[in-house]
Hints:
By secondary structure, this protein is an alpha+beta fold. The chain contains two helices and five strands.
Amino acid sequence: METSDCPFCNLADDQCVLDSEDVRAFRDSFPISKGHTLVIPRQHVASIFDLEDDELAAIWSAVSQVRRRLQKEFNPNGFNIGVNDGEAAGQTVAHAHVHLIPRYAGDAPDPRGGVRWIIPSKADYWSDRQ
């Protein structure tokens, strides 16, 4: 994907909730929950594993900053934090990004297993399976 075609490389400044030299954060266009935010490197890379250590540190520092802001703004009861790395993992925009998804009491009948539900048949490890 060319950076000129990348929706994350072409964000308007007013879309960002955090904007620094290395990292940007903005609300997901198709949010799972109120406050669902993406944190991206300014550098266009497909995988977070293509970043240098200092760039990775900047991403995770921004995730922490955004989490604190979401905590104040929406008062969620928890968070799911995830990375879809590669097409087989569900990545649909080939620009590295971290999902920060606020969770609220009652938003799912039983939230146990969290991100394990990406493969539903393997998520429930706590009950008896036949």
